[in-house]
Amino acid sequence: MKSGNGKGPLAQLRMAFGWAAVGLASASALAEVQIIEVSPAELATAMEQESVKLGIKQLLAALQYEDELLATWSTTKSNVTDPLAKAVIDSALIDQLSRNRPSEVGLQILDELAAKTTQINTPHPESATYSIPALRVAGRAAALADSWRTTERAASLASSGAMAVQDALSIKSEKDNTAALLAIEQLDVNSLKHLAQWLKVKPDMSTLLAEAALKTATATSDSELALLAMRSGENTVSRDALLLLQRLDQDAFLTHFEEAAARPLLGGIAVAGLGRSSDERAWSKLTELLADPALGGDAALAMSQHNPARSLDLIEQTHNQSSSVVVKRYLLMLATIRSERARTLRDELLSLGVVESAEAREIARW
Known about the structure:
Elements: E1 2-4, H1 9-22, E2 34-37, H2 40-47, H3 50-62, H4 66-79, H5 83-97, H6 104-114, E3 118-124, E4 127-133, H7 137-160, H8 162-170, H9 174-184, H10 189-200, H11 207-220, H12 223-232, H13 236-248, H14 250-255, H15 257-261, H16 267-276, H17 280-289, H18 296-306, H19 308-318, H20 324-335, H21 340-350, H22 357-364
Parallel strand pairs: 2-3
Antiparallel strand pairs: 1-2, 3-4
Helix pairs in contact: 1-7, 3-4, 3-5, 5-7, 6-7, 7-9, 8-9, 8-10, 9-11, 10-11, 11-12, 11-13, 12-13, 16-18, 17-18, 18-19, 18-20, 19-20, 20-21
């Protein structure tokens, strides 16, 4: 086991990254980190020490009784002096606290652990030159304490109603914004209705408000809000909003299909939604999309996967009049349909000569 005060260049980097992860605000908290280098074997040995096992056992037992936890915690700190053993016990306590409900005493302990200046490092598995943090006591404690405070803030916002949530969504504070999004899931019906109306009249919907709109739409089954979230959200928010829109209002989904398909990352998802639809308009849109250079392949797969029999009928009836691009889409559809009829149609389409001989031989093996 080696320890250092973190004054070398590598240690300075460790200090920078370590305290950035902990996220302590005060300058006084940014004391020198004591870095202790241990081997994986030393770490494993520490975990098996009787004093460590006893300390963990006593703390876990005390977790059931909040009035005893602080006293047990204080006794454990006094009895265990080895910094590695302490870190192992601290890590086990954080694991258990993460499974418990937030508590005042638990938060007090987490804040103390977040301010720890001892960092346990183990060798990097791919480079003897570097080491990496093990156990990450300070960072994990800070993250859990922050999560608990966000949960408490969300409960407070929800109990205060829609206006409080709207205010928290309107200020530039990541913590308040996160708490407000969590609070939406706890609002009563009337508060949700008020929040929905407030969101619908916002002139410019930010990505934050789009996420709020999605959560509110999910809770209230509001297709108008789902559409707004799809238009303004990013990545998973816009995707989930589109899927919600289709579940809530098939007409709205079909009406706004082209708009959804034109959004980044939504084209394939929108086309797949057409495949799941039983509406005749969806099938018509899919057949039109077969010639589309960007979405034609998605349309082909949506048709063959969700309606293979009708796909075979379409191919059989139209392949002689179809363009070479559409015929290639038909071949893609046939590759996913396992039947003798599909194989016969595949051979017939290959005989049309729309694909080159090498590609045709490969397709014939499908």
